[in-house]
Amino acid sequence: MDITNRSDIIGWLGDRVDAVGFAPIDRFEEAPEAHHPSTLLKGARTVIVLARAIPRGIFYSPEHSLYFLHRSYHTTYNELDSLALDLVRRIEAGGELAVPIPAYAPLEVEETGTWGLLSLKHAAMLGGLGAIGKGGLVLNEKFGSRLRFGAVVTTAELEPSLIVEELPCPPGCAACIESCPINAFEGGTFNKVMCGPTSIGHAIYPLAFATDRSLENRELVFNTAGYNYWVKCIECQRVCPLNRG
Question: What is the pTM of this model?
Protein backbone atom coordinates (compact mmCIF):
# COMPACT_ATOMS: atom_id res chain seq x y z
CA MET A 1 0.00 0.00 0.00
CA ASP A 2 1.39 3.37 -1.05
CA ILE A 3 0.72 6.25 1.35
CA THR A 4 0.41 9.76 -0.03
CA ASN A 5 -1.81 11.78 2.34
CA ARG A 6 -2.84 12.22 5.97
CA SER A 7 -6.01 10.13 5.80
CA ASP A 8 -4.05 7.25 4.25
CA ILE A 9 -1.55 7.41 7.12
CA ILE A 10 -4.22 7.48 9.83
CA GLY A 11 -6.12 4.64 8.19
CA TRP A 12 -3.02 2.48 7.76
CA LEU A 13 -1.86 3.05 11.35
CA GLY A 14 -5.25 2.07 12.74
CA ASP A 15 -5.05 0.78 16.32
CA ARG A 16 -1.28 0.27 16.16
CA VAL A 17 -0.94 3.72 17.72
CA ASP A 18 -2.89 5.38 20.52
CA ALA A 19 -2.40 8.82 19.01
CA VAL A 20 -0.77 10.41 15.95
CA GLY A 21 0.15 14.03 15.29
CA PHE A 22 1.30 16.04 12.28
CA ALA A 23 3.65 18.99 12.75
CA PRO A 24 4.71 21.19 9.82
CA ILE A 25 8.35 22.19 9.64
CA ASP A 26 7.68 25.89 10.28
CA ARG A 27 6.70 25.02 13.87
CA PHE A 28 10.29 23.94 14.61
CA GLU A 29 11.92 27.36 14.23
CA GLU A 30 13.27 27.24 17.82
CA ALA A 31 14.85 23.78 17.43
CA PRO A 32 18.68 23.67 17.51
CA GLU A 33 20.09 23.49 13.99
CA ALA A 34 21.71 20.10 14.56
CA HIS A 35 18.36 18.65 15.65
CA HIS A 36 16.06 20.47 13.25
CA PRO A 37 13.94 18.25 10.96
CA SER A 38 15.40 19.92 7.85
CA THR A 39 18.88 18.87 9.03
CA LEU A 40 17.68 15.29 9.32
CA LEU A 41 16.09 15.23 5.85
CA LYS A 42 16.68 17.68 3.00
CA GLY A 43 13.37 19.13 1.82
CA ALA A 44 11.47 18.00 4.93
CA ARG A 45 7.97 19.43 5.24
CA THR A 46 6.24 17.41 7.98
CA VAL A 47 7.04 15.51 11.16
CA ILE A 48 4.61 12.66 11.87
CA VAL A 49 4.61 11.75 15.56
CA LEU A 50 3.53 8.24 16.57
CA ALA A 51 2.44 7.60 20.16
CA ARG A 52 1.87 4.43 22.14
CA ALA A 53 0.66 4.34 25.75
CA ILE A 54 2.14 2.20 28.51
CA PRO A 55 -0.40 0.42 30.76
CA ARG A 56 -2.14 2.45 33.46
CA GLY A 57 -2.05 -0.56 35.77
CA ILE A 58 1.69 -0.05 36.25
CA PHE A 59 0.97 2.74 38.71
CA TYR A 60 -1.30 0.48 40.74
CA SER A 61 1.30 -2.25 41.30
CA PRO A 62 2.27 -2.25 45.01
CA GLU A 63 5.74 -3.79 44.54
CA HIS A 64 6.72 -3.98 40.87
CA SER A 65 5.92 -0.66 39.19
CA LEU A 66 9.58 -0.08 38.26
CA TYR A 67 9.88 -3.53 36.66
CA PHE A 68 6.70 -3.13 34.63
CA LEU A 69 7.59 0.41 33.54
CA HIS A 70 11.10 -0.65 32.51
CA ARG A 71 9.92 -3.42 30.22
CA SER A 72 6.96 -1.42 28.91
CA TYR A 73 9.26 1.44 27.92
CA HIS A 74 11.80 -0.69 26.08
CA THR A 75 9.26 -2.95 24.41
CA THR A 76 7.37 0.12 23.24
CA TYR A 77 10.54 1.74 21.87
CA ASN A 78 11.09 -1.29 19.63
CA GLU A 79 7.45 -1.34 18.61
CA LEU A 80 7.54 2.34 17.60
CA ASP A 81 10.84 1.95 15.73
CA SER A 82 9.43 -0.91 13.65
CA LEU A 83 6.24 0.99 12.94
CA ALA A 84 8.11 4.14 11.89
CA LEU A 85 10.34 2.20 9.51
CA ASP A 86 7.34 0.47 7.93
CA LEU A 87 5.57 3.82 7.51
CA VAL A 88 8.67 5.29 5.85
CA ARG A 89 8.72 2.47 3.32
CA ARG A 90 5.09 3.09 2.41
CA ILE A 91 5.51 6.87 2.14
CA GLU A 92 8.50 6.39 -0.17
CA ALA A 93 6.51 3.91 -2.26
CA GLY A 94 4.11 6.83 -2.81
CA GLY A 95 6.89 9.01 -4.24
CA GLU A 96 8.00 11.12 -1.25
CA LEU A 97 11.13 10.85 0.92
CA ALA A 98 11.07 9.98 4.62
CA VAL A 99 13.34 8.92 7.50
CA PRO A 100 12.41 7.12 10.75
CA ILE A 101 13.30 8.91 14.01
CA PRO A 102 14.28 6.47 16.79
CA ALA A 103 12.04 6.32 19.85
CA TYR A 104 15.11 6.32 22.09
CA ALA A 105 18.70 5.69 20.96
CA PRO A 106 20.95 6.58 19.22
CA LEU A 107 21.67 9.64 21.32
CA GLU A 108 24.22 12.37 20.68
CA VAL A 109 26.34 13.62 23.59
CA GLU A 110 27.00 17.36 23.45
CA GLU A 111 28.24 20.02 25.86
CA THR A 112 24.66 20.90 26.77
CA GLY A 113 23.70 17.31 27.54
CA THR A 114 22.42 14.18 25.82
CA TRP A 115 20.15 14.72 22.82
CA GLY A 116 18.04 12.53 20.60
CA LEU A 117 18.27 13.15 16.86
CA LEU A 118 15.02 15.09 17.24
CA SER A 119 13.32 16.17 20.47
CA LEU A 120 10.33 13.84 20.40
CA LYS A 121 8.87 15.63 23.41
CA HIS A 122 8.74 18.92 21.52
CA ALA A 123 7.66 17.22 18.29
CA ALA A 124 4.72 15.67 20.17
CA MET A 125 3.75 19.08 21.53
CA LEU A 126 4.06 20.71 18.10
CA GLY A 127 2.05 17.85 16.61
CA GLY A 128 -0.87 18.47 18.96
CA LEU A 129 -0.47 15.40 21.19
CA GLY A 130 -0.30 17.34 24.44
CA ALA A 131 1.44 20.08 26.38
CA ILE A 132 4.70 19.92 28.32
CA GLY A 133 3.74 19.68 31.98
CA LYS A 134 5.30 20.87 35.20
CA GLY A 135 7.41 17.71 35.38
CA GLY A 136 8.96 18.21 31.95
CA LEU A 137 6.94 15.41 30.32
CA VAL A 138 4.28 15.68 27.63
CA LEU A 139 0.84 15.47 29.21
CA ASN A 140 -2.02 14.19 27.10
CA GLU A 141 -5.62 14.75 28.23
CA LYS A 142 -6.48 11.06 27.87
CA PHE A 143 -3.17 9.30 28.60
CA GLY A 144 -1.36 11.69 30.93
CA SER A 145 2.42 11.15 30.67
CA ARG A 146 2.03 7.50 29.66
CA LEU A 147 2.74 8.09 25.96
CA ARG A 148 6.04 7.07 24.38
CA PHE A 149 6.88 8.63 21.03
CA GLY A 150 8.47 7.77 17.71
CA ALA A 151 8.43 9.86 14.56
CA VAL A 152 8.86 10.08 10.82
CA VAL A 153 10.25 13.12 9.02
CA THR A 154 9.00 13.37 5.45
CA THR A 155 9.02 15.61 2.40
CA ALA A 156 5.26 15.07 2.11
CA GLU A 157 3.20 18.14 2.93
CA LEU A 158 0.44 16.93 5.24
CA GLU A 159 -2.41 18.73 6.98
CA PRO A 160 -1.19 19.82 10.44
CA SER A 161 -2.76 18.91 13.76
CA LEU A 162 -4.06 21.61 16.09
CA ILE A 163 -1.71 22.52 18.94
CA VAL A 164 -2.96 21.95 22.50
CA GLU A 165 -3.06 25.44 24.01
CA GLU A 166 -3.72 24.60 27.67
CA LEU A 167 -2.00 22.25 30.09
CA PRO A 168 -4.44 19.41 30.89
CA CYS A 169 -3.48 19.30 34.59
CA PRO A 170 -6.37 19.58 37.07
CA PRO A 171 -6.63 23.16 38.42
CA GLY A 172 -4.18 23.79 41.25
CA CYS A 173 -2.64 20.32 41.07
CA ALA A 174 0.94 20.11 42.37
CA ALA A 175 1.13 16.36 43.01
CA CYS A 176 4.29 15.88 40.92
CA ILE A 177 6.10 18.76 42.63
CA GLU A 178 5.16 17.62 46.14
CA SER A 179 6.10 13.97 45.54
CA CYS A 180 9.62 14.53 44.15
CA PRO A 181 12.11 12.86 46.57
CA ILE A 182 15.01 15.15 45.53
CA ASN A 183 13.11 18.46 45.18
CA ALA A 184 13.94 18.74 41.48
CA PHE A 185 11.18 21.37 41.22
CA GLU A 186 12.86 23.80 43.57
CA GLY A 187 11.93 27.36 42.64
CA GLY A 188 8.95 26.16 40.61
CA THR A 189 11.04 25.03 37.64
CA PHE A 190 11.77 21.40 36.77
CA ASN A 191 15.51 20.65 36.83
CA LYS A 192 16.17 17.93 34.22
CA VAL A 193 19.88 17.69 35.02
CA MET A 194 19.08 17.09 38.69
CA CYS A 195 16.37 14.54 37.92
CA GLY A 196 18.23 12.41 35.34
CA PRO A 197 20.78 10.56 37.53
CA THR A 198 18.07 9.89 40.13
CA SER A 199 15.40 8.59 37.76
CA ILE A 200 17.45 6.44 35.35
CA GLY A 201 20.61 4.37 35.54
CA HIS A 202 22.54 1.44 34.14
CA ALA A 203 24.96 -1.04 35.71
CA ILE A 204 27.61 -0.21 33.12
CA TYR A 205 27.64 3.58 33.71
CA PRO A 206 29.83 3.63 36.88
CA LEU A 207 32.44 1.51 35.10
CA ALA A 208 32.22 3.12 31.70
CA PHE A 209 32.51 6.69 32.98
CA ALA A 210 35.21 6.12 35.58
CA THR A 211 38.13 7.60 33.60
CA ASP A 212 38.76 10.49 31.21
CA ARG A 213 39.33 8.02 28.40
CA SER A 214 36.03 6.26 29.02
CA LEU A 215 34.20 9.59 29.11
CA GLU A 216 35.44 10.27 25.61
CA ASN A 217 33.46 7.20 24.50
CA ARG A 218 30.29 7.91 26.48
CA GLU A 219 28.19 8.31 23.33
CA LEU A 220 29.16 4.79 22.28
CA VAL A 221 28.29 3.51 25.76
CA PHE A 222 24.87 5.19 25.76
CA ASN A 223 24.01 3.76 22.34
CA THR A 224 25.26 0.20 22.81
CA ALA A 225 25.92 -1.24 26.27
CA GLY A 226 23.78 1.40 28.00
CA TYR A 227 20.77 1.22 25.70
CA ASN A 228 18.51 -0.82 27.98
CA TYR A 229 18.56 1.64 30.89
CA TRP A 230 16.88 0.98 34.25
CA VAL A 231 14.18 3.23 35.70
CA LYS A 232 14.89 4.15 39.34
CA CYS A 233 12.19 6.69 40.21
CA ILE A 234 8.69 7.32 38.87
CA GLU A 235 7.11 9.18 41.79
CA CYS A 236 5.94 12.17 39.72
CA GLN A 237 4.25 9.81 37.26
CA ARG A 238 2.84 7.57 39.98
CA VAL A 239 0.92 10.41 41.66
CA CYS A 240 -0.25 12.20 38.50
CA PRO A 241 -4.07 12.08 38.43
CA LEU A 242 -3.99 11.98 34.61
CA ASN A 243 -2.01 8.73 34.77
CA ARG A 244 -4.23 7.14 37.36
CA GLY A 245 -7.41 7.89 35.48
Answer: 0.92
Cβ(208)–Cβ(194) below 8 Å: no
Instruction: Give pLDDT, residue 245.
Output: 76
**Does some domain include residue 225?**
yes
Domain count, the chain: 1
What is the DSSP secondary-structure string of the chain?
----SHHHHHHHHGGG-SEEEEEEGGGGTTS-GGGSHHHHSTT--EEEEEEEEPPGGGGG-TTTHHHHHHHHHHHHHHHHHHHHHHHHHHHHHTT--EEEEPSS--EEEETTEEEESS-HHHHHHHTTS-EE-TTSSEEBTTTBT-EEEEEEEESS--PPPPPP-S--SPTT--HHHHH-TT-TTGGGS--HHHHHHHHEE-TTHHHHTSSHHHHTTHHHHHHTTTSSPEE---HHHHH-HHHH-
103 is in which domain, residue-wise? 6-244
In-domain check, residue 32: yes
> Does residue 36 lie within any of the structural domains?
yes
Q: How many residues does the chain have?
A: 245
Mean pLDDT by 10 residues, the chain (245 residues): 85 97 97 93 98 96 94 97 97 96 87 81 97 90 96 97 92 91 85 85 78 76 82 93 89
Q: Is residue 1 part of a domain?
A: no
Residues with Cβ within 8 Å of 201's Cβ and at least 6 positions away in sequence, in order, are: 229, 230, 232
pLDDT of residue 113: 66
Q: Check residue 51 and give its pLDDT.
A: 98
Q: Can you give the pLDDT at residue 111?
A: 66
